[in-house]
Specification:
With 122 residues, the chain is mainly beta. It has one helix and ten strands. Strand 1 and strand 2 form a beta hairpin. The structure holds zinc ion.
Length: 122
Amino acid sequence: MAIGTRPQQKYLGSCHCGAVRFEIETDFPELTMCDCSICRRRNALMVKVHESRFVLLAGEDSLTEYQFHTHTARHFFCRVCGIYPFHRKRVTPDYFGINVFCLHDFDPTGIPVRQAVGAAMP
Ligand SMILES: [Zn+2]
């Protein structure tokens, strides 16, 4: 089992307007940035969590979904404020990528950041 940089704990997250609220549990083994066409534009710093460690607390009706290319990854946005809070990943669809800047009381200082090579994927 990978050892993370923080104690395993729950974090609350939300979009800007608060319509979408969720909870994750993670120990932050690493953060990722990605150079694929959508991640470059949204410029998010992300953490990967298994779907069993993710709970959508509110806002299912406020989420809108965007898909492109292979239509495997599912990118979610708040239809009210436009913020990207999380997406379902393409290579590992039982995992979510979470926008860590949507998390409450979270400081990314000291967590290693890995540059993912999304643009090179076929
Ligand atoms: Zn919102």
